[in-house]
Amino acid sequence: MELVLEREYFSSGTNGILSYNGDEICKTIELPWLENQRRISCIPEGTYVIRKRYSPKFKWHLEVVAVKNRDLILFHPANDALKELNGCIAPVTTLTGEGKGIQSRVAFERLKDVIFPHLEKGHVIKLTIKKMFNEKSN
């Protein structure tokens, strides 16, 4: 199974659309791109593996594995990247600004409903992160 996260970069946050087989699962918010610096930047574009993870704070959630020079990159609820994220990815139902959205918990449950059954069957879940097609390339 492969998820695709298409991003649009802004100075105060990164917005995205997360999809599976061309169908949107949810929107996403992240920190701005600041050269993959820990706790203040989104992670680099590329392909990663996602696994299920448990913590007392977030309960069952998702972790992006093997991000270069980073660890504990999670998918978890948040509505404001600059205030609530340290490099993680937050699903949201609606984007409201740069790195901001609403109804993150609803979007997070939808994401888990799509992914957890595949993980529980032992499938490998890949996440490909790339620039949004309509964004100008440098």
If you had to describe this structure to a student in words, what would you say it looks like?
The chain is an alpha+beta fold and 138 residues long. It has one domain: L,D-transpeptidase catalytic domain-like (Beta Barrel). Helices cover 15% and strands 45% of the residues. It has 2 helices and 10 strands; from the N terminus they run E-E-E-E-E-E-H-E-E-E-H-E. The chain has helices at residues 81-84, 104-120; strands at 2-10, 13-20, 23-30, 46-55, 59-65, 73-75, 90-92, 94-97, 100-102, 125-131. An 8-stranded mixed beta sheet has the order 6-5-4-10-1-2-3-7. It has a two-stranded antiparallel ribbon with strand order 8-9. Strand 5 (59-65) and strand 6 (73-75) form a beta hairpin. It is globular and about 40 Å long. InterPro entries: DUF5675. It comes from Epilithonimonas hispanica. This is DUF5675 domain-containing protein. Pfam families: DUF5675. Residues 5-115 form the DUF5675 domain.
Summarize the structure in short.
The chain is of the alpha+beta class and about 140 residues long. Helices cover about 15% and strands about 45% of the residues. The chain is globular and about 40 Å long.
Main features:
138 residues; alpha+beta; L,D-transpeptidase catalytic domain-like; eight-stranded mixed sheet; two-stranded antiparallel ribbon; 10 strands; DUF5675 domain-containing protein; DUF5675
